[in-house]
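Worked example

This section walks through a single chain of length 34. The input is the sequence exactly as stored; nothing has been trimmed or padded.
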Amino acid sequence: SNLNTISISDIKKLFDALFERANHCISAEGEYFE
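Given that input, the structure is written out below as tokens.
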């Protein structure tokens, strides 16, 4: 794909991956999760 073009799905995949990592870290800490 064109490096100058970032699609919505690309952004969604990126944020999904980031949030998944964050959720793993948070759950590992045992805080903010109920």
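What to look for: The mean pLDDT is 75.
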